[in-house]
Model the fold of this input.
Amino acid sequence: MLRWILGAREAQGTVEKSAALFIGEEQPKNCFTEMQVLKGHFDIVRFLVQIDDLRFASAGDDGLVLIWNVETGELLLDLRGHTQQITAMTSYAYVRGGNTHTALITASSDRTLSLWDPDTGHRVQNVSDLQSSVKCLLVLDRLDTWVSGGNELCVWNKDFELQCKTVHHSDTGISAMVELPKNFIAAAMDREIVIFKLNVSGSDIAVMAMRHLTDHQDTIRSLINVNDGLFASGSHIGELILWDSLNWTIQAYEHILWEESAGEGQSEVKLTNQKQIERSIQHMSSDGELLVAAVGSGLYVYNVALKSVVAYRRLAHDSNVLHTMLQEDGHLMSCSADGSVRMWELLDLPLPAEPASSGLFGMFGTFSRSSKQVCPPTKKLPEVSSLRSLELTGDLIGHSGAVQMFVSFKEKGLVTCSTDHLLIVWRDGELQSQLRSLALFHKLEQNQGL
Amino acid sequence: MIGSPDVVAFTKEDDFGELFSDPLSLPEEFSVPLFNHAAHANPWTKTSYAKFSKDFILISEFSEQVGPQPLLTIPSDPKVCGTFDLNYFSLRIMSVDYQASFVGHPPGSNYPKLNFVEDSKVVLGDSKEGAFAYVHHLTLYDLEARGFVRPFCMAYISADERKIMQQFQEMSSQFSKASECLKMGNRKAFANELEKKLKDLEYTRSVLHKEAELQKTNSGCYSTQAIEKANELANVEKSIYEHKDLLRQITSYPSRKRKDMDFVQCEMEKATEISAVDDTLTCNSDNAVKSVETESDNRKSTYTPQFIKAKSAKCFDKRLKTLEELCETNFFHQTLEQLNLVEKSFRGDLSFIYTSQINRALLTKQRVTSFLFEAESDWIDETSKNFKVSSNTPPIPILNLSGELMNLESYTTSVDVDHIKQSGESSEVPAESSTSDITQETSEAADTETKGSFSSEKSIETFGSVSPSNLQSNYFEGLERSKVSTTSSYEDQKVGKMSPHRTSEGSPAEVFGNGHLVPMDSACCIGQDGFIYEEPTPEIAQECCGDTVVNQEPLSLLHGDPVLQMDYILEDSTLLGSPNKGLMFSELNTSVLSEEAARINIEDVSDSTSYMSTSTSSDRAASPFTYGSVLTLRQKKKAGHNALRFIRQYPFAHQAIFCLLSGRTLVILGSDEGTVRKLVNALLIYVPNLGKYGETVQPWLSTPFQLTDLQRWKLIGLQRAFSPAGSSILHSLNRYSRYISILDCDNKTLRCPPYKGILINHMADHRTQIKRGSTYFLHVQSLLTQLTAKAFLYTFCHHIHLPMDMNDQGSVTSRRTNFLLQLGCTVEESKIVQYLSELIKTHCIQGHLKGVNKSFFSFDYTTSYLYKI
Done:
């Protein structure tokens, strides 16, 4: 690339060397041609939460919660109170006076939980001296309560009163939770998924553990709801399990191995050394039909209904993929520790299946463990034909550290947060230009001309 | 009887005159009058028969002891006046004082009455001496003078009559400011003097009283002595009463005056006077005017009243106060400063002054786009606006030339007509006067006579339309209505209640505001240099104010946000001691004008390196531009020279320029700082929206740059270092390579997107015949102006930007593209125009907010190529 700059010196950019794929500078499908850098944090920014169409909150290791306007990039509020890093943040919609308000719940390592009003910046509620710091938060809208997960699971009502809690589980604590039908909650604790039941009787709520699902061989890294009937969990060693939401049985089991092809020669050694890290399922997202898993530095798209692989990229990024998102019509986005956000498109492979891809599929270590009870693989379509390719359509380079997560505001843009303490809003330059034109004419109208 | 040809002529004019006007031609007020070749073969020979080498300002006094006498000239260099007889000329100009400045005991009044007379403004000519003068008469009060008044006049003397005539209004306003300053100081001094005198009188009264008592007790009867004493006492009593009345009059001056003056500026000054005078006299405890107060307090406390003898000395025995004593020293010096500026601003040939005025007037009409490539013109107004809002201090009077120029023509014509009517015997009528033939009678008779003079006051009588108020209202037409109204409403409020920030009230600096003064070197008009560095841009207008201040204050301090700066000074000024006052306020002015302050050094045309020695804005020979300092036009022209070298040297100059124009950040990478800075300096002139301090350019950066830097800077000089830091710099270059173009000046390579258009080929033809940097700069400017015009059109054409319906993004895009094609833009040029358009839009939308002028950063995904020499 820029080796000419370096003159005789060797290009030391590891980015270049190990680049899995490089799209180049010509990216006609990439509409993000405008960026705005938002400065405000002093440490790694880990969480982004959308408040409404216009606002979002960011939080991270500096304990600050900042509220921004996505259109202008203006810092609206600065919520200070936590003394240590924020460990979890979620938005919490509640009804007051007929209007729905959105509040923010934050949890921090200083063992406090706070409720913030993003309109005023007030810390409405605060709970301190918890027994352990909270790692995840889950709002149960139906019950108008919310659940915090740390070493124990606590259920809170809207007034920040502790309703009930479980006994101390383990020191690893709850890393992720999803809400299941019929007031059940699935919580990931190390290698187990524990199903809790919330018993609601009048205003009292009791919680009890119903079942421990111990099918994962390693630590569970991500846990998401796929649709009404399914939830999914992914583990550190690449196990992806689809569960039935009602009876908590395994619907599908994939073990993603990312095996090396024989032809890759020397690099195999290096990559097999890293295998453990590379297979970890860091993040999953789903639109109910497709499920995207960030597996190591690769991406894996799985069709939930067909229980088959749709597409995959073993080396989608140069480093671990940290967050993914499925968009409409087969577009997806991923961000990674390599500092980039990449945009992908699911494309049908040309009909004559390329030998390369079929070969790749062969080495792809996917196997369905015949499910114990339910759902024998009914529609077993020839997998080759269902396989699509994941084409890179563009990448966003801006952050100098790992991109922790992103939130999309549709046409208003995409917000990314990163280890480099920055947030970046990416916008569609053409659209912004048109909006500015409109704003200009509006202003001219107001001012009666120039 | 009207002959038929006349009738035809009239009908033609009435019916078709307007129809035939060429829409493309400049409005009449902007057209430069052609030089009359028939009358004078050489335009520069005009001054030759005058006895002085260049224009100067003369201050004269009509002394009650010695009659008219010259006091001082500006410039004070005696060479300027040469053999010109100042005494004689003083006599001439002082003898035409039309002021009816009657002071004394008016009939029907028992007490002396002060007359607050308007200054009179007169144009005088002396064809024998070859001198023409704008003469500004004013009266100052002096308790010891006859009738309490001392007539003075300030005259601008020039050999060029047209200059006086055409610039009459501008001169009038500038001299009015100076006069206002003098008078303000004089009123204060006069009030002080009165107070002292009152004290003396009271003391005298008490002494006399005691003596009378003593005599009464001693003799017990009324001796003649006692009667004398009683008379004396009565006289003193009367005198006290009179003086008190005078004091009351001088104190109540503004309220009396307000009624008959209606123009804004005057009100402004009055408002300041009110407070100033009030405060001095009534000792209002207001911290803002503390300095003034303490001054007078001190004087009061230290002043020991003296006994006044019944018969005071005859006026011829005593020494008259000097002008400096008449006005307070601060005010006096401030006035001199102002007059110096006036002198500077009217230097040079009329055509040059006129052209630069037109230029400025035109530029002020282009505020929407002028920020792109022109040096920003409106920020002065803007800061003064901010100034008003933020610190509640009296607004600086803003003189907008556009309005003035509009009625300049009409004014001068009426002046001419007046001239002719007034002086029946006048012979030589100005050549440009169209009506001259009609009234001309005898040509020889008036040879030695005053060639024709008229007073503005008389003309007011004759022509209602030329009255000061009318002039003024026309004058301000160029200003936005809103501004005028805010100013005046502000004044009302100001007068109504005293605001806490009254720091600068009563300060001499105040009076001057920042009118557009155009100091220039007359040499540049002669054209011996072939090129004029003092390009007529609005900035030059302000050069003056920094004149002395530059040396007093490190410029770096002034570079901050002007508003902040002012606040800072304002806060400071609450504790200022009296001697520093003037200085502080001149700084206050300068902080507004810090841009010009830097430019002041650059006035000298001939010596291209002169500014380096004095300049605060440059310390390096390689690059006159350093980050954070004010970017001057002069520097830009120097940059033109470098740019010329650049385009000759580098075949890929087109691509580099294209990058800059299309908003792609250009990084100039090199290990030698001098080379890099030079290149940055060369490319400076192509950077749109450069900012007044060149904020969008970073000439030398030795740390790895970050994403936010790309947002801020469009042209970066980057150090190539072979060290860990260097590698991280390269890493960042590598990482952001898609957003930047890199010009490696060590290897002479450029990596950037391709450019295939022709526009930049015109702009940067390496075979160009242009030799001079400044010429090249203007060449580039003209092309950039064309681009700007396109961008303006593109931005403000409604139909191409408004969507037909909600989901219409695509059609808008295609309409835009088509429009650009119609404008004759190639793909690349479209990019430039679009970028400029975006800049215009954000500039318009965000207004003049500082700091956030461009918070986002746009780019596009295109392939870059590597170009080599």
In short: Residues 1-20, 260-276, 352-384 of chain A have pLDDT under 50 and may be disordered. Residues 200 and 349 of chain A are 51 Å apart (CA to CA).
